[in-house]
Predict the structure.
Amino acid sequence: MKGLQILKVEIHNYRQYQDTHTIELDCSDDAMNNVIEGENGAGKSNLLNAVTFCFFGIEDHKENNVDDDDAELPYINKNIMERLDSNESAEGYIEIELGTDSPEYIFRREFASFKITNNEFENVFEELTILKQSGTDWEEVETPERTRNEILPPNVRDYFIFDAESLRDFFGPNYQQRIRKGILDVSHIELLDSGLNHLENTRSTIESNASDASDRLSELQDEIDAKEADIDDLEDEIESLGEDIEDTRKELSQTKSKMQDASDERVQDLYDTRERLEGLLSERRQERDNRIDEINELIVEAGPIVYAKQALEKSQDILKELDLPPDIRKDFLEELIDDKKCICGEDLEDKPQKLEELQALKVDVERVNESTIEGEYEVESIIEKQSDLVSELRSKRSKKSELDGKIEKINQNLNETSEKLKKFDIPDDVDVAALEEQRNELIEQRDTLIKKQGKKEVQLESEEKELKKLRQEFNDELAKQQEYRKVVSRLDFIDDVIDKLESIRTTVLSQIREQVVGQMNTYYNQLIWKDAEYTIELNEDYQIAVLNEQDQNQLGSLSAGETQVLALSFLSALSQISGFRAPILIDTPLARISGQPKKHIASHLPEYLSDTQVTFLMTDEEYSSEVEGLLKNQVSNEYELDFYDGSTEVTAR
Amino acid sequence: MTEFETSNPPRDISIEEDTRHVYEELKEANDSPFKDAELNEMFVFAAAYGYNQGIRIGLDSRRALANRDSLGDEQIWILKSIALNEAEDDDILRDGRQIYTIVEEYAKGGIEQLQKQLDGPGDLYVDLSTEIIELHQSD
């Protein structure tokens, strides 16, 4: 089913868009893509910002919205601001028409910038207004945010409007949290969570009311209340840390983008070296993790044998001394005796002595359990394999140590590269040294936040277990009071329902994960340029594996371009599964991809997310004549952005 | 001297109720070699470990950990060997109940020791792999 399209964007005096610019993006059914091309700084990111600003009142995509000192710039175009006197203001707006084939909604956001002095200003913006088509008339929607949320709620906007280049670090440290958030965002489990919340509140109320029954219950209730408060605080802290980590990641990505603008070849060489080393580091870490997994398997297998070696050897001696009969089934012997036949088939009718020997053998076999006879061979086999297992364990440990050494060396090289970059001082170019410092600080900040979040999560788990114990103690204490038996039953019932809902929640999330992985497999294999089939897996801890045809996980060794495609596949999967039929805007989809891979992706881009309007914002480098040729038949509208003298011109091609 | 009688082994492998959380912690710890291990594998490891350390502790309260049928032949014979060595009497081989009483008590000792190792400094998988290699070499 075809989704909603952005039919038209009208921008008036927003950022570098001086005066009014109208961009028609209405697509035909067989060409559901648009391309807006512009060099760096021409206004592509601010076009994305225009959409998010109109919809949500926020600007996620930093272009030139901050000056060198990181102070915010006015919403209103710079040229217009310069013409204003102090205490004067100028206004602007962004209007977006949405519909399937014809306009159904008009979203509008107005804003203004007040000039206080030449260097001081104030930005203000109005509430979102939405007009909805009603027959031939347009009616203003009473609750615009509700209408907007039915089309594209804030928590899923990043899966529809995003900068592909910022995805380079998507699978960096702590990526599992991003994956988890994405899955939760599209799972529509708000009602379930609301139900769980309600039940937990009800339980708390019942416990509170019953706590007067005895002093001990009162004490326990106080402890439960305190523990719940601690848990709430921890959950808030963890969420806040998660936001900080994501903000840091975005800042880091922007810093890296700025670094790419350095024109000095030596600097670019160092950046390339660093990228290569980081790729190698990731590979070696993955290899080391694989070795550790193998070591762990060997510990579990070899450990019991080595630790019980003395017992095994003694058993072997005992079993040998038992003079065990041959491994023959008792019922087979009984049959032979009944038929008066020997094991070799000889007739024993007239051979009573041999029959007696068979009888004696049967008694022997009965004396010893059948499995004990097998045991002699089993124990021997266990003892024999011990040396091989330990030898393999030693070998894996040695390989792991080798990898530790290689990882240390790569880290040293990375540090040296960073030190070299910190010493660069090139006038009239990007401040490489400052960016390098900033990058290192942001990395340290990110890692510290991740560790902190990890510790808080462990603490939360522990507190939740404590709370569970306290609740159980409360219930047990309450059950001692005859008159509160019914209350205990109610509490038990509530606990059962909570368990059931949590189980449903787990099942829903598991199903969403399956759907996401299914879509990711399709998109990734469609877009990736290698002649191989990959299998993407996502486990319940939100860890992704990209398995090659030999079943080896390649996640740690993907190139920047491959990582970008993987992240693109994930976001696209989320947008499809979310159930929201909003249009998609992607900034710089091919930025990290060159040559043959770029052509391959360009030729497959139109197939992916068919039935959804996708608008690509590309640099001139990305939108080469080759790419243009490959996309030609799938593109309904093409525009070019040219920035000159403080203003961007939008030209239809 | 204990007298042994012919008896079937129990349906379940049991552990001390209070040690259940240790099995879970060992599965979840970052530096643990048991992350992907089955519970029956952990039990056999704990029993062998407890036997090696010479720590056998009676169970105060029992809780089923896994179905005894889930044990493979190799695992069964490691456990039987421990019991046989403890009993010093091959009659124990027909007393299934007694075999598992012995190994469950060694497992309790073993799992408590493993918990101490986990809580101690260093990585558990490094410590255990080093110990296994050295123990093998010392013979």
About this structure: Chain A has 16 helices and 15 strands. The longest strand of chain A covers residues 89-99. Chain A has a mean pLDDT of 89.
